[in-house]
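ingest -> validate -> predict -> emit
validate: passed (alphabet ok, no gaps, 387 aa)
predict: started
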Amino acid sequence: MDETSSSESAPVTDNSLIEEELQPDVEEVQIPAPPVIPTPIIQTTERIVTPIQPPITQTVERVVTPIQPPVQSGSTLRQRAQGGLSSSANSAKSTFTVLKATTIQHALGHPLAYARVLMQAGYEPLPPYRATNLFGKEALYYPNTFRYLRHIYNVDGFIGLYRGFGCSLLSKVVCWYTTTKIDELLGPVESQTSGNQAKPTWNKCTQKILREVRCQSWGVLLSHPFQVMAIRCMGQFVGREKAYSSINIFQNFQEIYNRQGIGGFFVGLIPRWLIEVSTIVLTNVIIHLLKTNLPIQNDMASVYEYLATFVAQTVTYPLSVVTTVTAMNRSGLQIGMLPRTPIYANWQDAYIHLKKTEQLKRGSSLFNRAVFGNVGVPAPGTPIPNA
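emit:
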């Protein structure tokens, strides 16, 4: 009996244990299940609903937004077109500004240039006078340039002071415009990048000279016919001719072509070209020597340039006289024919003759215009007034 009861009680104990073990498992499974099921559904629906809106909004925006770029590209093209027009307008405005400044400057200086051309041609309407020079020695002097201009004013009036102004201005404008455009075609100048080239080198100076000579040569070539017209128009003051006009260049073209052919448009071209080339070379060389041998100062750059230009113009001035004389020679004007002026074969012949007679410096100064050589000296016995 004891064994049976013990054996029966043992399984009961085991079943209770099993039930106790199973009940927690069932409770653990069933208890968390109810809250877990609704929570994912709510969260899932929220996650589904919430992200649905942004794609729709973004998609609509992305569809609508790309529609605008063609309009923006059109406006961009308009802006670029306007930018191109504005740049060309700025270029035209700068060109107009330069032309206006050149015209004003040339208008102010033309009377002096006009008087100098007549002096270079050897025309002296006013008698010389006797005075002492800086060394206390007596010498003959022509009246200064302003008394010369007063004589022109008394003959032709104020408008007469601007004889040949139109052709002279056109020559300067053509020369400047051609030189500028050739310089643009050659491209930008190479800049020095290495630190050891702080001071200018001879190689850089040579490149600058060659570039300026190339640009200026084209400017001189294309503008020289108008320079010939201007010189001959000014020379008409002596003989009171009216063959050349200050404005009507077609009349001048016809007159030159009928008298001298195509070559008449380029008389005096070589000495004028030599003036420009010599001035460029001398100016750049002198500036280079000053910058390399003297302390480099930005304030002194303009002084160096002024000194170099003054020296170059002084050295090349005789060629300017030859250019004027050659341009008037054989022109049919009284000032360019016998007996006032010899007939020269070419510009070298004119240079040799003017050098022998000491006439290469005439018209070089505004004041104290000394009489050189025997040209212009009064005949013996003629009274000469004192200063």
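Residues 109-191+198-370 form a domain with the Mitochondrial carrier fold fold (CATH 1.50.40.10).
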